[in-house]
Request: fold
Amino acid sequence: MSNRPNSVSIGSDVYALGVILFELLVEKRPPRSRAESQVRLLCRSLKHRKLTSSSLPPEARISDSGQDSPLIDLVAGARHLPHELRCIVAKALAYDVDQRYQSADALGADLESFLRNEPISAIDPSRRYLLRKFFRRHRLATTFAVLVSGSLIAGFGLAVWGWMEASTQRDIAQVEMERSDMALDFVTEMLQSIDPDFAASGDLMVMQELLATAARRAGDVLLDHPDIEAEIQGIIGATYVALNDLDRAEVHLRRSLALSRQENLGMQALQSKRSLALLYQNQRDFERSEALYDQILDQREILAAQPVQYYDTRVQLGALYADTGRPEQARETIEPVLETIREEHAGEMIGVQLSGLSALARAYQAQGAMEQAETTYREQEALARDWDSPMARRHLSDGLNGRAIVYLEQQRPADAEPLLRESLALTRQRLGDDHPLTLPALSNLGSSLRQQGELDQAREALESAYEISRQHHGRTAFNTVLIRYNLGNLLRETGADREALEVHQWVVSTAESESVFQDVLPIYRTGLGQTLLAAGDDYRAAEVLETAVLGLEERYGVDHRRTLEAVESLLKALENLGRSEDMAYWRERYDELL
Reply:
C-alpha cells in the first residue's frame, strides 16, 4: 500500500473526508495531495496550541514565485478553530497513511468526543490534557447541579461552537478563549499532582481534590490577576454548593464577591451573589436568600446584556416563594417569565423554562391545585425528553419526581411508583447509586411502597435513603430528619410502636431546636401524636396533636388534607379519654370538612 494521500484505500477515503472537513471549517481548500511538503507543514502547524503565521517555518511563508505562501492564508483561516478540532483535521489530512485515522468511524468517533468535551485520540493523553478535559467536562456538570438553568455562563467554559460564528465574532471569541485559557492553564498547572486515573474515571471525588488544591493556591498565584481569581473563586464556591459543602462554599463565594466589587466586575459579582443566594436557600435561610435575589434583580443595566441571568434569577426567586408558602407570589413571578421566554426566546432558554415549570408546579401544589400541578410537570417532562442535552436528564428526573409527589398527595401510590423508579434510575445512571441527588426519588419511593402496603420494600428504600443522607449531609440535616420521620411512620404501621415512638420523639426534639424545621414541625408533631395514640398514651397524644392541628391550620389552612388527618387523630385521642366537651369543640369547628 502506498503512503501517498491519494492512493486508493481506506486511508484515501479518510483523507478525502479531511479535505471536506477543512473546506467546511476554513472555507478554503487544503494543499493538493501531491504537495507533500505543504501537506506536512500545514498539518504540523494545525497542531500548534496557539496557531499564528509564525507557526510556519520562515521558508514555508514564501512561495517559489516570491509571493506569500498559500499556507499563510490557510493558517490564518484555521486560527479561529479550537485546538482539538485542528488536531482532528490534521490527523485526517496526515500525509503518511499510518499517521491518519484508520477508518471513517474513527474520525467520526473523535468528532463526537470533541463535541462531548471528552479526550480525543488525535492528542496524546498526557496528564495535563486529561486534567484539562476533565475540568472542562465536570465544570459543566457541577455548575449545572448548582444552577440548573446554567446561570454560570461566564467562567472557564469555552464556546466550542465559536468556530461557526461570523468572522466579526471570531475575533471576540478569540479574546475570550485566550482569557479562559489563562484561567484554565492556572488550574491545570497547579493540579499536576492529581492522579490522572481519577480524571479518566470521572469520579466526583477528584473534583473535591481539584477544588481543595485550587483553593490553597489561588490567592498566591493570581495576586496580579484579581479578575481571574474572582472567576476561579466563584467557580470553586459554586461547585462546593453542588457538593453540599456549604461552609467552604460561602468562604470562596464571599472572596469572589469582594474581588468582583474591587475590580468592578459587575456580572461576576452578580454570579457570586446568585450562588450565595442558592447556598442560603439550601440552608433554608430564606430571608438572606431572598434579599440577595432582590439585589441582583435591581441591577437592570448589567442584566440587560444577560437575559438568561435575569430570567433565571426571577425563576429562582419564584421557586423560593413557592417553597416558603407564598404560591400566589410565586405564580406572579414565574408565569410572566415563562410567557416571555416561550414567545421571544423559544429554544434559547430551555434550561430556564424547565426550572420555571418545576417551580410553577410546586406553587400549584402549595395551592392545592393538583390537576394544574400535574399538567405543568407533564409539560416539564415532555420538554426535557425532547432536549438534546446532558442536562435534560436532571430536569426529567425532577419532573417525574414532582408528578409522583402529586399522586402521593392524592393517595395514588400505584401511579407514583413507576415515575419514581424511572426518576431514580435516571439519577443513578448519571451519578451512581449513593449520590445525594438520589434521595428525593428514593425517599418518595419508600412512601409510595408504604402506602401500597409493601412495607418490607418500603423500609429497605427508606433505610437506604437515610444512610445516604446521614453520610453526605449529617444526622441532623433537614433531609436526614425528614427521612427518619418517614421511617418512624413505617415502624408504627408495622406494629413496632416502641421503636416508632423513639424515632418520632427524637425527630420532634431535633426540629424544635432548629428554626430550619419550623415549617415542617407541625407535620412531625402529627406523626408523634399518632404514634403516642398507637402506643396507648392518649393523654400525651391529645396534647401533641392539638398543638399540631393549630400549627397545620396556620401553615396549610383548615381544609388541607394534613390538617384534617391530624384532627381525626385528635378526636380519637379525646374519645379515648372521655373528654366530650373538647370533642364537641373540634367537631363543631371541623364537622363540615370532616
About this structure: Confidence is low (pLDDT under 50) at residues 1-8, 138-177, 186-203. The CA atoms of residues 374 and 403 lie 6 Å apart. The first helix runs from residue 10 to 26.
